[in-house]
Design a protein that fits this description.
Length: 132
């Protein structure tokens, strides 16, 4: 029985290596596309102006999709909770300041807020944000 020539063996090994590399590349690209399709909205610097009854919060859309802010949920120090509907659009890569008016008689001291937003058909929320 004859052995394979060294050139043919090298070609077979090269083809197997290229096929494995193509499979790994496709897996990597699919993973990146899945992560990029999810919204990445950061909320920080929530400040309450007590005289005006307004909370300002900075929102940073670091994702690649437009995000629609739909509501703000606020927990107050007195145990009350407010659900405030808001309609705000933040484009991909954009940073905006969101202004939320608070009813001072119901909630004299807001403490924590969560922002609800939509992207496509799904609804997401931010992590709780401490209001200073």
């Amino acid at each position: 029985m004859r052995a394979l020539s060294p050139i043919l063996s090298a070609v077979i090994l090269l083809m197997a290596t290229l096929a494995a590399g193509a499979i790994m590349y496709q897996y990597f690209i699919d993973t990146i596309e899945t992560v990029a399709d999810k919204p990445i909205l950061y909320a920080y610097n929530a400040e309450y102006l007590q005289d005006l009854g307004i909370v300002y919060v900075t929102l940073d859309n670091s994702g690649s999709q437009v995000v629609n802010i739909t509501a703000v949920h606020i927990d107050c120090a007195n145990g009350e909770a407010l659900d405030i509907p808001i309609s705000q659009v933040i484009d991909a890569g954009e940073t905006k300041s969101l202004r939320v008016s608070i009813n001072k008689t119901i909630c004299p001291t807001p403490s924590v807020m969560v922002i609800e937003y939509d992207m496509g058909d799904k609804t997401y929320t931010t992590e709780p944000i401490k209001i200073s």
